[in-house]
Design goal:
By secondary structure, the protein is an alpha+beta fold. The protein has 2 domains: 1-35; 38-203, Glutaredoxin. Helices cover 40% and strands 20% of the residues. It has an 8-stranded mixed sheet with strand order 1-8-7-4-5-6-2-3. It starts with a helix and ends in a 16-residue tail after the last helix.
Length: 210
């Protein structure tokens, strides 16, 4: 009897351990499934020149300043999809791209999407406001990163750079270099892939354009 009891205990431990491993495997499988973007969505982003981020990753905590000098965070826009564009007035490709971002904000911006064009110019509003006026930009707000640290914080090595951030505050794709953001192919993809994440548009207050 004294010999059988340890065998039973060992068998019980083995069975319990196997069951626990099975539960862990199921949980891991569910987690991976939850964070894996459908292949057709990743392919759709790639087709318009955007590099998909899989699995989506939370964006770093970072603060920007608006035209009036008020500080805000990306987290303040949670509940809405955000197209975060980093640019500078001295960047020629940025100058080429900005009008299409302005038109995209006019076309799709609102409760579900915010096009956030953030200048990293150290001089701030004094150079950005004339830039907007020269290009006739009316729909984009003037938002600034006077520290110039945003590119390093977000892992960007060139300008312009655009991050697609879903309504849960996760980066799902990025584009380094200019893109015609208001083209039919891009806006269609944004609406069918990107904006689906903004399922609760009332959760964040819309920021007004200038």
């Amino acid at each position: 009897m004294s010999i059988v009891a340890p065998n039973r205990s060992r068998r019980g431990l083995l069975l319990s351990g196997a069951a626990a491993l099975g539960v862990v495997a199921i949980i891991l499988g569910i987690s991976l499934t939850m964070y894996r973007a459908p292949p057709h969505e990743m392919a759709a982003l790639s087709a318009i020149g955007i590099t998909p981020i899989a699995p989506p990753k939370p964006v770093p905590t970072f603060s920007f300043v608006d035209e009036a000098g008020h500080t805000f965070r990306l987290a303040d826009l949670k509940g809405r999809a955000v197209l975060l564009n980093l640019w500078a007035t001295w960047c020629a490709p940025c100058r080429e791209e900005m009008p299409s971002l302005d038109r995209l904000q006019a076309k799709l911006g609102g409760a579900r999407l915010q096009v956030l064009a953030v200048s990293i110019d150290r001089q701030g509003v004094s150079v950005v406001r004339p830039f907007y006026r020269d290009l006739g930009l009316h729909s984009l707000g003037i938002d600034l990163d006077p520290s110039g640290r945003a590119p390093s914080v977000f892992g960007i090595e060139g300008l312009p750079a655009t991050l697609l951030i879903d309504a849960q505050g996760r980066e799902i794709g990025r584009k380094v270099g200019p893109l015609q953001w208001d083209s039919a192919a891009v806006t269609d993809t944004l609406q069918h892939v990107f904006l689906r994440s903004a399922s609760n548009p009332q959760t964040s207050e819309e920021r007004n354009s200038p």
